Amino acid sequence: MQVLPWTTAADTLHRAKVSIAAPPHQALSAALVRYQTMVEHAPEGICVGQNGLLCFANAHCLALLGTDLQHMAVHPMIEYVHPDDRAFVADQQLRRLRGERLAVFEARFQRSDGSVACVEINGVLIE
Predict the structure, then answer these.
(1) Is the pLDDT of residue 9 over 60?
(2) Confidence (pTM)
(3) How far apart are CA 102 and CA 79, in angstroms?
(4) Is the pLDDT score of 4 beyond 90?
(5) Which residue in 8, 72, 90, 108 has its CB near the most CB atoms, within 10 A?
(6) Rounded to whole angstroms, how far apart are CA atoms 41 and 100?
(7) Pair 64, 42: CB distance under 8 Å
C-alpha cells in the first residue's frame, strides 16, 4: 500500500468523506499509516523507549545512534549515550518519569564505531 501526500483540497475532501464513511477501525488504521509515514520520513530523529529499551526509532534516529533495528532492540537506551553524559541523561529520564516537565537539553550519543553525535533531546512521557 502506498501512502500519498494530501496535496489538493479536492483530494483532502475525498479522503475526509472516505474516513467518515469507513468503519471506525478502518479510519483509525488509515490515520495510523499516515502518522507512521510522517514519523518515518521526519528530518529529525524520533524514537520511543520503553522499559529501558528503544522499541521504535525512525531512520534518522538510527543514523544518529549508528545502529540498526536488530541491535537497537536488545541494547539498553543508555548504552547509546556517551559515558560522560549518562548520569545526567539518566537523571533527566527519572525526572520526566516523575512527571516533571523538562526543557530541551543537549547530550552526546556514542556510536558503535566510536564516533560521537551531539544532539538535543526533547522527550515526553506517553501514558
Answers:
(1) no
(2) 0.71
(3) 22
(4) no
(5) 72
(6) 30
(7) no
C-beta of residue 67 within 8 angstroms of C-beta of residue 81: no
Task: Name the residue among 32, 9, 28 with its Cα closest to residue 20.
Answer: 28
- How is residue 68 written as a grid cell? 540498526
What beta strand segments (E) does 5-115 contain? 47-50, 53-57, 105-110
Mean pLDDT for the chain overall: 81
Summarize pLDDT for 26-76 with one digit per residue, the tens.
776 888 888 888 888 888 999 988 888 998 899 999 999 999 989 988 999
Question: End-to-end alpha-carbon separation of the chain, Å?
Answer: 30
User: Residue 91 in contact with residue 98, Cβ under 8 Å?
Assistant: no
- Cite the beta strand spans of the chain per DSSP E: 47-50, 53-57, 105-110, 116-121
